[in-house]
Amino acid sequence: MAEIALEITPVEVKARLDRGEHIRLVDVREPEEHAICQIAGAELIPMRTIPQHLQDLDDDRTICVFCHHGVRSLSVVDWLRRQGVENCQSMAGGIDRWSLEIDPGVRRY
């Protein structure tokens, strides 16, 4: 099986969701950031709490991790993969790029 790329673009995420793929969107921003804007259907698991959620994240679904600009989410995906969770990717550019390319209704900050 081919290795899954570390990053996925918002356009690719949206296309996969539109095809009906079961992608788990995980927002690793802080609650204060989440209060400003969200992606519908995403679950908030702040970066600092990811280790506590490791068992919950290790399932069969593809996991798309995002943050504000994609830096924290890339670190989370790297850590998850080192823990054996292979089916995860970081959304390049984070929720900011999602707002620019997919949903301008998502507030930028």
Provide a compact summary of the structure.
It is built from five helices and five strands. The protein is an alpha/beta fold and 109 residues long.
Tags for this model:
109 residues, alpha/beta, Oxidized Rhodanese, domain 1, 5 strands
3D structure, described in words:
By secondary structure, the protein is of the alpha/beta class. It has 5 helices and 5 strands. A 5-stranded parallel sheet has the order 1-5-4-2-3. Strand 2, helix 2 (31-36) and strand 3 form a beta-alpha-beta unit. The longest helix is centred in the C-terminal third of the chain and has 12 residues, at 71-82. The radius of gyration is 13 Å and the shape is globular. The termini are far apart.
The span between the termini is 39 Å
Structural class: alpha/beta
**Low-confidence parts:** none
Q: Specify Rg, calculated over alpha carbons.
A: 13 Å
| Domain unit count | 1
The main β sheet shows up as: 5 strands, parallel
CATH superfamily: Rhodanese-like domain
Level-1 CATH class name: Alpha Beta
The general outline is globular
Percent range of helical residues: 25-40%
